[in-house]
Write a structure and sequence with these properties.
This protein has about 500 residues and is an alpha+beta fold. The protein contains 18 helices and 10 strands. Helix content is about 50%, strand content about 10%.
């Protein structure tokens, strides 16, 4: 079969012209880019001439699942190609830990990727920053600032519980009518992040709050293919890709403008003796470094860092909570067991606290199984090697992109028998005590471990227990049971579904 035939079969006939343009772009890009060194790399699936495995990578709706299947044939470490440039894919807990922990010095960096919408491409926040002194400095600052503003403290628990009560009030007003809970959960997690970053929250009907949430949702709803022109500008000749990427970049500019306005307001009311939130903490650090021409605490770094904190802290946690509600609907027996434990420890009126977690092993086990099954972030951001390395017998050269397949760990049948079965007992011993497992790596591992892990776990426990203390979740009467199949994108999310929240009798 010719290359052109393959290209034409990739899309429906009405899109054939754009497919032809894709072929032209591929050829031009291949000519312009110098082929990376490939000798000694792990073997992998055969790709098409010129484009390699690119079409599989960008067209597949479930590339983490495809990668896991390929690992059965090629091993836990294999190579795919985007055009003629290799990407080493890591699958399985052992290989991922060996790379990200044992060989962290080599595997902890990031490749160059444009910061969409930013006028300063050197301001990469934490997510896109290579493993440099700048990264270490800003991660240390971020972790310290998050601790200062309550992460891991009772004061933060109070803010989360305030949002859980606000969420419950909105749900109560539904009065047993069916609704989709996704947007409400995002409102809740957005407000938690907002209280840390901006020192304030948004009412559910607040116009600015709605605009902020819409920008976050649009960010995560963009398809991977639509971002191709950002990494490969020549792809802008394809109208649909150009339109999608421009819409994405414009949305990011709007989000960054929203953040700039908040920072400006904070500057107008800034008091170095009264640091109110994350924005103030950054302003204080920048003030300390005034006159230092090498300071990395710039305004654009401030904006980019806040944007990343907002995006990561709002959507991923809300999506995991969305999965939590779905699994309770699909498994009413488990929902009932969790509620029985909540009732025995908290009763109908006492607010949950992280101090209660050790007394609620079944709830903790259920949340762990939700996190495993949800696999909300099934692939990490691209890693990048900083030097040559012989890894598991293969020569991986410096400046090689590395994909880390978290999904392959969380759905590994060797670690989790019947991995597609929802079973909290995986995290309980014979006496019913909770068992923590190191292979539950939904926040990745090593030096790129998500800095928001602790906050996310507190939110999940407090909001989940608060909801099940007050409501029993069911499918609407007469409707089909919602699907447990997810949708892969920036995050792995449930297919939208309707539910009924039945208030529990006190």
């Amino acid at each position: 079969m010719s290359i052109m035939s393959v290209l034409l079969s990739a899309v429906n006939w009405p899109w054939s012209l754009q497919t032809l343009l894709i072929g032209v772009v591929v050829i031009i890009t291949t000519v312009l880019w110098k082929r990376a060194a490939t000798a000694g790399l792990p073997p992998g699936p055969r790709g098409l001439p010129l484009v390699g495995n690119l079409f599989t990578m960008i067209r597949s709706k479930d590339s983490p699942v495809v990668y896991q299947e390929w690992s059965k044939k090629y091993g836990d470490v294999f190579t795919v190609y985007a055009f003629r440039h290799p990407r080493v894919v890591l699958n399985g807990f052992s290989a991922i830990r060996e790379a990200l922990v044992t060989n962290a010095d080599v595997f902890s960096s990031r490749p160059h990727f444009p910061v969409p919408g930013s006028p300063d491409q050197s301001a990469k926040g934490l997510l896109l920053e290579p493993y440099t002194a700048r990264f270490k400095e800003h991660k240390k600052f971020t972790m310290s600032a998050l601790r200062d503003f309550g992460v891991g403290k009772r004061s933060m628990e109070g803010k989360i519980l305030e949002e859980a009560r606000a969420l419950s009030d909105v749900i109560t007003k539904k009065e047993n009518q069916s609704f989709c809970i996704s947007r409400l959960l995002k409102n809740t997690t957005c407000n938690v992040i907002s209280s840390i970053v901006f020192g304030s929250r948004y009412e559910y009907d607040d116009v600015k709050g709605k605009e902020l949430l819409q920008m976050i949702e649009q960010t995560f709803s963009t398809k991977t293919l639509g971002l191709l022109p950002i990494a490969f500008p020549v792809a802008r000749v394809i109208p649909s890709l150009k339109k999608t990427s421009e819409r994405y970049v414009n949305n990011q500019r709007k989000l960054m403008q929203h953040i700039r306005e908040e920072i400006t307001h904070h500057k107008e009311t800034f008091d170095p003796n009264d640091i109110r939130d994350f924005v103030d903490a950054f302003l204080l650090e920048a003030k300390k470094r005034e006159g230092d021409e090498h300071s990395t605490f710039t305004e654009e770094q401030h904006v980019t860092l806040v944007r990343q904190v907002f995006l990561a802290g709002t959507d991923t946690t809300a999506t995991t909570l969305h999965w939590a509600v779905l699994f309770m609907i699909l498994h009413p027996d488990i929902q009932q067991k969790v509620q029985q434990e909540i009732d025995s420890v908290l009763g109908p009126n006492q607010d949950p606290s992280m101090e209660h977690r050790s007394k609620m092993p079944y709830t903790e086990a259920t949340l762990s199984e939700i996190s495993r099954m949800a696999a909300t972030a099934p692939m990490t951001a691209l890693h990048f090697t900083t030097s040559d390395i012989v890894f598991r017998g293969y020569h991986i050269p410096k400046s090689t992109r590395v994909e880390v397949n978290i999904w392959s760990v969380l759905r590994d049948p060797q670690l989790w028998p019947e991995p597609n079965k929802f079973d909290p007992a995986r995290f309980l011993d014979d006496s019913g005590n909770f068992v923590r497992r190191e292979d539950l790596i939904m926040f990745s591992m090593g030096r790129r471990l998500c800095p928001g892990e602790r906050l996310a776990k507190v939110e999940l426990f407090l909001i989940f227990t608060s909801l099940l203390q007050r409501f029993t979740f069911k499918p609407p009467e007469g409707s089909a049971v919602p699907s447990a199949e997810g949708v892969f994108g920036f995050v792995h999310s449930p297919v939208p579904f309707q539910l009924v929240a039945e208030p529990r009798k006190k």
